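Friendly challenge for the regulars: who can give me the structure tokens for this chain first? No prize, just bragging rights.
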Amino acid sequence: MVHDRKTRQTIGGGRNAGAAVASGEYLLFMDADVFIPNINEFFQQTLERFEKDRGLCGLTVFLKVLPEHVTLSDKMFFGLVNRVYQFYNNVLHLGMASGEFQMVRASAFKQVNGFNGALVVGEDNDLFGRLSKVGRTWVETGLFVMHTSRRAHNVGWAKLLSLWAINLVYNKVIRRSFSKEWKVIR
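First reply, four minutes later:
Bragging rights claimed.
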């Protein structure tokens, strides 16, 4: 599917377009810089989790930075983020996940009308928050994906964390993003 509009497509808009042409019981959304170690075993476990828990509508996993890119700041931040996501999903049942990896039951995705395509930032957390209202969301703590952390390394952790925080508040309170654009970083 090609984006041919004059306005820039949001991440959620692109993911919705992909979901619209996908078939199957599950949808997988992940960032381009994500690597899944032991991929066959990984997906065997995720599918078993969905099959075991018919009320599960969204699953995510722990995030790690690739060894050749990881910094001490990455380890500290993602260690904290992983536990926050685990607490929000597995304990509070409120739903929260980042876009590095989200596996969603297709029927639940349709039920909540997919990603909010108007959000420039935070479409990932927004989706899991809405999914948690129609079923369970879960962090599978025994699994992880690896990524480059290129945005944090490019813009700096302080700026990135402040942008995430401001956008989270905007998304929750006024249902739109603070950021007007989320620039591609390669």
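The chain has a mean pLDDT of 90. The beta strands are 26-30, 56-65, 101-105, 136-147. Your move, everyone else.
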